[in-house]
Amino acid sequence: GGALTVLCATGALMCARRAAEHVPARVLRAQCRLAFRVTAALYALDLRNARSLAGSVHHRRRTRRWRLPQPRGRALLVPWRDLTALLRAPSRLPGAPLWSTTGVVLLALAARADAREAAVLLGLTALYAGYLGALRACEGARADGDDPRRASQLPWPHASLALHHALVPALLCGLGAAAGLLGCALLGLWHPKLPLLLAGVPAFVGAALVTAYRGPSPPVGVSGVAGVLLWNARGPLVVLALAAPAYPNGGGLGAPAWLALLGCLSLGWARRLAALGARPTPHAGVSGTGRRR
């Protein structure tokens, strides 16, 4: 058994050596650059960028994909781009409404839980599920946040473009939350607090956009594992922490008003990050977009 293993390993090494001689130098240089970028992303704990870079090496066969017709109005251009990006990543398109529906169901279970600890845990999980639903639908915003040059030809500044990116996630998450409300009503799990998750959709979308526009790497001064993790998760941590107190005391108009205000603040935060991310660096000289912020 050992001799056979050594023989197979030796044969594999000889085949690899012969194959390596025929690999073009440009391919080796490209692979080295890609490996360096993936390693840098992993050291920065940027799993999103590392996964995107690692996935770029897979060459898939060209297949005919269903494409949306081009919009006639300028206002539908960004939603069309976002839906097209979701169609290119098919797992994300149903993920957004499914996570929102899951959040409504978890909130219904939290309202019926007897133990306070279980209710708190289920409630926090429901909020996080709502955020995950919005995050799954922000593929277009994530791409523009990683590379602001993608949106250089659009007739909007980057700050306003962030708000345009909120339309598709809000629509998908709203549909998912509405489906969850309908399902809970039909299954006898209805509770007056459940519509609050639908009211929290703008806040979830704002937190997801903050994550999308956080930038490809931490700023100067953020170091250490804890600092990088907090920098990566600052959007959902802040927004969900501020949204959580609205759900235990969901009666009246105070909780929906607070969630609406929180949604406006989180969207404004994302708008600010988008504007900062599009600014030229001191070493760049002139912005690649050449547009007003």
Low-confidence stretches: 59-63, 281-293
- Based on DSSP secondary structure assignment, what is the total number of beta strands? 0
Mean pLDDT: 81
User: Based on helices, strands and strand pairing, what is the structural class?
Assistant: mainly alpha
Strand content: under 5%
Into which percent range does the helicity of residues fall?
Answer: 55-70%
Number of domains: 2
Radius of gyration: 23 Å
Number of H/I helices: 14
Q: What is the rounded distance between the termini?
A: 68 Å
What is the element layout, followed by pairings?
Layout: H1 2-20, H2 25-43, H3 47-55, H4 77-88, H5 92-112, H6 116-136, H7 139-146, H8 158-164, H9 167-186, H10 195-199, H11 201-212, H12 225-232, H13 234-243, H14 254-277
Helix pairs in contact: 2-3, 5-6, 5-9, 6-9, 6-11, 8-14, 11-13, 11-14, 13-14
Report what the structure shows.
This protein folds into two domains: 57 residues, no CATH class; 204 residues, no CATH class. With 293 residues, it is mainly α. It has 14 helices and no strands. Helices cover 67% and strands 0% of the residues. 34% of the residues are buried.
Core attributes:
transmembrane, 2 domains, single chain, mainly alpha, disordered C terminus, 14 helices, transmembrane helix, 293 residues, membrane, globular
Question: How would you concisely characterize the structure shown here?
Answer:
The protein has 293 residues and is mainly α. It folds into two domains: 1-57, no CATH class; 74-277, no CATH class.
